[in-house]
Amino acid sequence: MVLDPNCGYCQKGELLDEFGYLVGELETSLVIIFREQSHPGRIIVAYKEHVSEMVDITDEERNKYFADVNKVAKAMHKLFQPDKINYGAYGDGGSHLHFHLVPKYEGEFEWGTPFAMNPKETYLDEAAYEKMASDIRKELGI
Length: 142
Fold this sequence. Notes:
Elements: H1 8-11, H2 13-17, E1 20-25, E2 29-34, E3 43-47, H3 59-80, E4 84-88, E5 98-104, H4 126-140
Antiparallel strand pairs: 1-2, 2-3, 3-5, 4-5
Helix pairs in contact: 3-4
């Protein structure tokens, strides 16, 4: 498995803790709560290996990864009941394949516009992150 020593998704621990809270692992991905929670329930689904682009993995692995993304989205719809989930995949600031799954609620913060990557407005305490992670783990069966 390819890992990068400078990547939070690869190394987990302190590097990941700066922006995320690890929920657990699915077949091809890590499930991570994005610490900034202006959009309650925002989650990252990161590919386990350090690849930059979807074209860097096989069609079979891509399909498995998107099955993981879909599984997380279903759990989010059940737990957070958003009106819409926005899916964001950028990575030009960090070259590890990942998607931000951002719940959006009609009439609330940033409805009708693209989500801000990190508005730095809403953070939770560790107990609240763990409660959310526990609920997500239960829903995902991990």
